[in-house]
Amino acid sequence: MRIRSLVLFALLLAFWLIISAEADLQHILVGTLVAFISVWFWQDLGSRLPSMASVPNLIRLGHCLVLLIGYIFQANIAVAKTLLFSKPPAKPIFMVLEPNLTSNWGRVLLANCITITPGTVTVDVDPETGRFIVHALNEKTGLDLLYWRLIDKIKKLEIKLERGEEHAVVTDGTDDPGSNRVAAGHYRSDSH
Amino acid sequence: MNWIVYICFFGSFLAFGLGTLGLFRFPDSYTRMHAVGMGDTLGVGLLALGLFLLCPSWTLRIKLMVILFLFWILNPTMTHLIAKAGLIHGVRPAKVTKLRKG
Q1: R_g of chain A computed on alpha carbons
Q2: Which residue, among B34, B44, B63, B71, would best test binding to A if mutated, counting the most A CBs under 10 Å from its CB?
Q3: What is the ipTM of this complex?
């Protein structure tokens, strides 16, 4: 926990120095003070953060982000085509996605990846079941999400990190690509 | 080099322009968020790439990349919050919206 706080402190200080682009005494003192107060104030958050990732896992995470940039580019082209050439311009769907992720950080990462890719928005995540309510611009975009390569990448990363923590991993077919099922009847119909 | 910068800026302009067009063409708040997402991802990304190539120093380039990284973390979080607030407070989706079952 103490190492994690130190790393967070160093990251915040580095961020401050990069953004201020000055390294004189005044900036270093202010940065140190604010970074220390931030780490102290948010110390409860520490238990929710993932364990310290090893270098291979950071490389895997970097690979996920590179893949994501490619997907963002493709999704932008798909949304532009829908916008310009489809009649009607959108046939949206709400769907429930079960990615079978168990950790908070894995769910947050996937939810952000889904939302940052134009054409799909994560509307809600159930913290107990791990089900995602996703809004997609059209049915094809939504169905493509079920077999999204990034979901399996995040699952594998999650399993590797959990093994690193020496916790028992209880997964239900999480290594099986395309196991992301659509659950029926869990959408809050009162909003319709 | 300047040609690459011009292409990046033009691509960014197109992404923002199409996003704005989507605000008018798409039928409800949820679908409009997808359109605006084009400007927020590709638009901002290409703008940052163009500025990255124009920057006179590496300090500014690193600063630009940090800002882009933060933007790409904060933007989907805010989009998610708006969509969730809309669903909770009863903002109705367009009539063509389907529910995917089974």
Answers
A1: 20
A2: B34
A3: 0.88
